[in-house]
TrEMBL record:
Entry protein name: NADH-quinone oxidoreductase subunit N
Residue span, NADH:quinone oxidoreductase/Mrp antiporter transmembrane domain: 125-425
GO molecular function: NADH dehydrogenase (quinone) (non-electrogenic) activity; NADH dehydrogenase (ubiquinone) activity; quinone binding
The encoding gene: nuoN
Keyword annotations of the record: Cell membrane, Membrane, NAD, Quinone, Translocase, Transmembrane, Transmembrane helix, Transport, Ubiquinone
Predominant localisation class: membrane
Cell membrane is among the record's keywords: yes
HAMAP family reported in the protein's UniProt record: NDH1_NuoN_1 (MF_00445)
Subcellular location(s) of the protein: Cell membrane; Endomembrane system; Membrane
Amino acid sequence: MDYAANLAMTLPELVLAVGAIALMLVAAWGGPASTKAVSWAAVAVLAGALVALTGPASGGGDAFYGLYRADAFAGFAKVLIYIASAVAILLAPTFFKRTAGADLRPEYPVLILLSACGMGMMVSAGDLLTLYVGLELQSLAAYVLASFMRQDTRSAEAGLKYFVLGALASGILLYGISLVYGFTGSTLFDEIAGAFAATPLTGDTRSLGLLFGLVFVFAGLAFKISAVPFHMWTPDVYEGAPTPVTAFFASAPKVAAIALAVRVAVEAMGPAEVQWRQIVIFASLASILLGAVAAIGQQNIKRLLAYSSINNVGFALIGLAAGTPEGVASVMTYMTIYLAMTLGSFLVVLQMRDADGQPLETIASLAGLSRTRPGLAAALAIFMFSLAGIPPLFGFYAKFAVFYAAVQAGLFPLAVIGVVFSVIGAYYYLRLVKTMYFDEPTGTFDEGDKLEGGLIAVAAVFVSPLGYLAIPALSAWTLAAAASLF
């Protein structure tokens, strides 16, 4: 394959990389005055990357001798990543403008673009080194974003915690990669799969080395998706980071990390399905249970949503545990609906401001919201009921999809336990609804931004029963994406 064809398959990442570098130069020359122009230009760059997906970038096959994969699965994940990244850029100006001591600089959208470029490499990785480079590009940008409000000690603390624990996770992942390479002689996914298929895990030195490599690789990936027991950074970072950054962390990187874990499990370590399935099932059930129980005592809504994201990752992993094309399709369906629910919830959090325009983050501040801002209360209720998986909202279909895939794969006990644990998680979602509709108002919220209000309406409509109209198209797209991995 010639060089031009390889570049055509990596066109979305090229658009993002060139766009980020160009906008970085504009930011350096224009200074803070260029922030608005750079932000809108960054959204345009993301739109350009979406357009670039319509060519060989979403179905061209392998590029650069198998290091990069342009297939339907990567294309699907990138659509979700770019949409979430664009929303994170659009949310920032109003938040920073109305928050005391906050200053939005043009570096913010540039960092989002660089992070999106890294996430694109992650979901298209066909080699462990491509995986690692993409993951580190995404992570380095995320560390800076977490501490973007330099005058805020919480933001600085969030960035430091994320950096230290992220470095630990990267070390674990890199050690796992070195073990896999040492015992297979390759970092390419196809050759790793061949080595696993040719080496029965019987307990000899080679098979034990491969098994330990598998465990360490999945441990490193578990940190990136904030699955238990590598979830410890999530509540503190979500609470301390600026709210638009928290919305970004809860959406785009989560989709990228889940998609990366799916690709590694199916393509690189498919022959060792029995071994990695045990890890995935444990992480799934532990994440569902801890995410449900730990959220009950939270008083800060951003921390509650952090535990909610841990809980939802657990449900997504049920689909991965199935290890079938239908299971992978259910994971992508779940992440699509999760993206709308989570972004919608954080958009409502951005609207939580007192009469002076200062942000409110406590659950108690939602008291009586149904009487002061009925539209906002209705939207948040839709998101909470949907996250809880209560029919007829679209979030119910997300959970149904992963449970059905697990049952079809013969994992009936896993599906039953997941259903039982989901009942626990419903408690804290319903507590928010009770606070909004039955408690006495403690104050009035400031009128929100029209752009935020429009995005909330779009997300609420998508996760409402009207979202079921999208099932035929969504099912066909996710099944086609999953089939490209098998």
